[in-house]
Amino acid sequence: MKPVLRTQGLSKSYGSRPALIDVTLTVPAGRVVGLVGPNGAGKSTLLNLAAGMIAPTAGTIEVLGSRPAADAAQLARIGFVAQDTPVYAGLTVGDHLRMGRRLNPRWDDALAEGRVAQVGLDPAQKAGRLSGGQRAQLALTIAAAKRPELLIFDEPVASLDPLARRAFLQSLMEFVAELEVGVILSSHLLSDLERVCDHMIVLTGSRVQLTGDVEDLLATHYRLVAARGGLDALPPGVEVIHAEHTDRQSTLLVHDTVGAVPGLAADTEHLNLEDMILAYLTRAALGAVGARAPQTLEAQR
After folding, report:
1. The ABC transporter domain covers which part of the protein (predicted)?
2. How does pLDDT run across 80-101, given as a tens digit for each residue?
3. Is 92 helix (H, G, I), strand (E, B) or coil?
């Protein structure tokens, strides 16, 4: 199967301000992808490029093997929900479903009406009077009822309370199972991504810091603890992502690409997803000479 997303040297600038710089990545089919990074990292820009809302400044991007928004058929293959799960405040829930039916050739009435009933939405109620969680469920239903091959979400749960977030993510995973659809999900909330994602892209400073299947990434990232000086000479293929030192001991977070860590004279343990991602974000922040301090990425537990 073709990758759901493939980019090569992808860059996007707004005037003189770069939003994405030389992004090269491949996302295999059948993944639920978490896109994570601080505000201003380029997440929304990447998703808008994938949805065909904007065009790149340089490089190439393919979604489901074609140029984004190349034609009506390509648009029908993607369901996109922008930030704040936008809906039309003056239209009822039923109006949204009727509009979806008119605009989308593969619209699934049974799926849309069944989901609206399941989550307790009143078809006669105007969207402007729905709660944030209800609006998110409506936007998700409309996107899924298109019967797309890829669902793209830009911070869909950032403004929701914990119960509404959990309900949204549960609905999303039910759609993934029912439709066998790929997902790219941008979020600041690491606990949410850890719950549903099996592939990760970490963006910061407009560049990709890390990408890959979560299982593979966790298998190759470690925390090493040894006496001070005991980890000064690491073998080739072991990259230090973050280091902390006291007078007596050193703690390193590393990426081991050659399987050398088990042979080191150090206490070792695999990193969890939160620690791994935060290590890369910290490294990028410390390396941003003269940059404004990045906003804290929320890591809820």
Report:
1. 5-230
2. 998 877 899 999 999 999 999 9
3. strand
Q: Where are the domains of the chain?
A: 5-214, 218-287
- Per residue, the 3-state secondary structure of 182-229, as one string, reads EEEEECCCHHHHHHHCCEEEEEECCEEEEEEEHHHHHHCEEEEEEECC
Report the chain's terminal Cα–Cα distance, integer Å: 36
Average pLDDT of the chain, as a whole number: 91
* 270/252 Cα distance (integer angstroms): 12
246-280 confidence digits (pLDDT tens): 999 999 999 999 999 998 988 999 999 999 999 99
Instruction: Give the DSSP per-residue string, 128-150.
Output: GGS-HHHHHHHHHHHHHHT--SE
Q: Which fold has domain 5-214?
A: Rossmann fold (3.40.50)
